Amino acid sequence: MVTVNIDGKDIQVPKGMNIIEAAKLAGKEIPHYCYHEKLSIAGNCRMCLIEMGMVQKDRETGKVITDDEGKPQVRWMPKPAIGCGTNASDGMHIKTNSETAKNCQNGVMEFLLINHPLDCPICDQAGECRLQEFATDYGRGYSRFVEKKVVKPKRTVLGPRVTLDDERCILCSRCIRFCKEIVDDDVLGFVDRGSYSTLTCYPGKKLENNYSLNTVDICPVGALTSTDFRFKMRVWFLKRTKSICTESSVGVNTTVFSREGQIYRITPRQNDEVNDTWMSDSGRALYKEVEAENRLRRFQCKGSSISSSEALIRFKEIVATGETAYVGSSHMSVEEQYLLKKLTELHKGPVYWLQHIEEGDGLLISSDRTPNMRGALLTGLIDNLPGDDLKALGQKIDAGDIKNLVVYHEDVLKAGLTEEQIKKVNVLYLGTHVNETSKRALIEIPTLTAFEKSGSFINQQFRLQKFSQAIPGPAGILPDINVLTRIITLLMGSDDTVTSLDLIWQRMKEEIKEFSEVSFRGMPETGVLLDKSRFEHIKFPEGKTLHYEPKNR
Ligand code: SF4
Ligand code: FES
After folding, report:
1. Helix, strand, or coil here: 170?
2. Has this prediction a pTM greater than 0.90?
3. Which of 37, 155, 185, 386 is most deeply buried (CB count within 10 A of its CB)?
């Protein structure tokens, strides 16, 4: 640690930390555009100019030279320095709001706004635009520019998901550095000089990698926009809900933006231990499953609609006849898995599980394409890695050992069961969407997507992370924990209802040793790393995923 004096206050910061971050520790904001804590330093916007000086030392003795009052004498640099490119060292003095610093901020803002179009009323970035915010906080408040603004291309399609308005670009190069440094897809660059500098794709290339929408998130102005979200909704009308991406076992932290029961966009939420500040484009598109045409919306028996109570009673009656097998899912939350475990204990039957393995991208999509396989291990539904087919279950059906099959989310036909085998059993299906299994089910129970309920998942690091309900589910659909609890209650013939997450967690705390210190309410935003020693013998399929280690922060 070194001592740095920021605006008259001494503060201890790690040696080498850049001054923007050091000032944050001192509770000071240094305005900046091109600096991003997860990218290399470019130092090209000049918005972070500060005054910098060093304590003077006697060259011979090395002692600090003091003034008449005994205070150390500071030699101020004749010109301002950029905060993002200045690293903290012992005895450094910084002024972030001196006359000179303020003049610099004024000047840079005026310069940046010279050619910037005045289209804030129709710009998608309004409400989260750094240019607007800093113009108010650090700008001069009026323009002296009387010449004609430079006209640049508008509505340039950079790729399938990103549209560029070149006139709004302030040439900070964040998007260029992101593509080069994080995704290793060097497709963006500047062409032409001076006022005519323009962002573009290299000839013959497109911004089409699966992380392209992160450039929209980090663009400090409205130059890069999401083609999907463009002109759909003002951001200040949107409700923000903390969630977890279900695309893979990475467990990317997200924010879901919704209004009046409709999701408009998903953006990454910073968790340095999991996803830094990034997420995939494919993960952002998952909200479309909510309104998908094949959404299961009705309780059904033999293809005809019935009430939820009738469906649950029929379900209970069938399970109670015995010889039931269960196919669970790693898409279920920890709480749902715990209740499924209780159900399988109450009406004993073998539990089958499927893994969904595809190639990981080495960034934020791991090879396990489910969010919660670890949950099934911890709740005791499985004790090792599941296979990728259900042939063993098929043999049991053929042998006449199984008469009823409870299936959660999975498509058992895709997993190796045959039509003949399916015909031999009563299929009781619970899931969010129609699939080949649900079409052959005796009872169909619609369930909620992760956007429509709250709960928790355990990611590939054994990090327990919670997600919250962003929108209500379709009318009449019960939360999964209510469905499972009601079936358990019906089977037990008692009224032992545990339909709240807090109550489920109280029970899980007592029964599962890894959860003994956890409560749902008290779970921190960055999640809780659980003890994984019980599962050290398992060779999990995931490889390395993205984790940014800053070199020059
Ligand atoms: S498009 Fe946005 S992120 Fe890219 S250089 Fe321009 S202002 Fe920066
Ligand atoms: S933040 Fe752009 S020069 Fe420092």
Report:
1. coil
2. yes
3. 386
